[in-house]
Amino acid sequence: MKQIIRRLIALVLTLLLISFLIFVIFQIIPGDGAVSRLGTNATPEQIAALRKELHLDDPFFKRYFNWLFGLFRGDFGNSYKYDRSVAELIGGKLKVTFFLAMESFLLIVLISLPVGIFLGRTAKKPIGAVLHVTTQIFMAVPSFFTGILIILIFGLGLKLFVPYYFVRPENSFFGFLACMIPGAFAIAIPKISMVSRFLRTNVLEESRKDYVRTAYSKGAGEKHVFYHHILKNAILPVITILGMTIAEIMAGSIVVEQVFGLPGLGQLLISSINTRDFPVVSVIILYMAFVVIVMNTIVDILYQCIDPRITMED
Amino acid sequence: MRRFKRFWNKRNHYFHVGAILLAILFLGILVSYFWLPYDPNAMDFSVANSGLSLRHIMGTDEFGRDVFSRVMSGMQDTFIIAFGVVAVGGLIGAVVGSLSGYLGGWLDEVIMRLNDTLISIPSILLALVMISLVGAGKYNVIVALGIAFIPSFARLVRGEVIKVKDAEYVRSARLMGAGKLRIIFIHIFPNIFPTWMAGVAVGFNNAVLAESGLSFLGIGVSPPDASLGRMLAEAQGVMFSSPWCVIAPGFFLILLIIGFSFVSENYSEKGV
Asked: I want to staple B130 with a disulfide (CB 3.0 to 4.6 A). Which of A137, A234, B144, B247 is the partner?
């Protein structure tokens, strides 16, 4: 319990640190927000007026805390580029990225565990060796190229789905979920390889341990030993790896949304970077970093609850 | 030669396949600096969008540029950027990690807190932050990704430094009155060099992935530079009519990544 509380305090401090860094990077370093909004033709009076309106003349820490509390209230500021609030711009996109990430995560869990178990059980057979190399190759393919191949093979060749077809969630929620499945696969495939290889290594390591030999010498069957003794211990560390994939799903979704033309946060992020729309960029980056860090903490705590032998000291 | 033979025999087959693959690709890159079948940026509309043939072994794109020549020159950019990223991240990371590990105390605490925070964020996101400030371009990508790679190298080196900090040879060097910097860089660093090299192999793999991702998003290298990721992004528009324009750069990108990942696999299986 004490450890969990310490972990939560560390989480809050980390989040504060991240928000501070993002604030410095996007609000201070780029220079005057008023000038970039009004353009170079603005008179000094206009700039001074806008600076006042945007509270750009306030002291540094006052600006930071105003910005931070604004975030808590859901006031993310206004886009430089569009005359709309950042919250409005992000609102609709969030759903796409969220469900894309959820679908990829589900695919990773549902596919990598059976594949990893199979790899572990067939490690000494030829098929296991072939699959082992195959997963290594899958891991090397960047998710955007996986995406392109999926479009070419399954979209254009086998006609299993219509490339670049997007259904808005308001029209049909199931259609919306279905049209993102190819993209979810593109994100998931390299991670499925990674997680199943990790599980395979764990299975091989565990099966060399003494308790396995003891179980065999007591007369337990091969299947019983595998599912009741080895797998139980081998699967626990996978939870940490699954937690780590969340960060990579986030990173993957930025790229894959671009490949499949999905109007999510990633697409907004890239277009905002190109137009130097810093309020939008900073909120999206902050949001993604927050999700990753919060999820990592949750996974750590969960892991400790499941296996109390693990302590969270580094 | 005998040392090389011993080094080679000690490695597993993953390493052998990866090293041979990389050697061939490097040779190709080297040759492409002096000779290419066509100018990678020369347009020839009379042969636009032609498929594979003896004159254009990987076809041409919508402007009639030879895809093979473009892939080879794209590999140059991809490789140079990966090299720069690993150099920046690996060297600065080694300095930060060894200072932090050897000196310890509050400095170590502060650096490692910051490090842990940055490490949990995907490096492409960190690079995006920097690119959005400094803009796209070959050298900006090297700096942005290089900085994004510092934390993982720093953590790797710090762990190793702490392991050998109280070893006999370090203690005797200290007794002989060697300064801290001398101990770190003359005595400790050569001993953790193999681990650092393993990090470099993984780093190359990740750098190629990250660079191609950034360039694919259109915020990596800018024209006329054409890294493999950028070629993929440009070719996506014509991938239904001339699929070879995406297959060729993608194929070489995968070869490059497989080469690096097989070489680094040798280390990771040994638990380094």
From this structure: B144
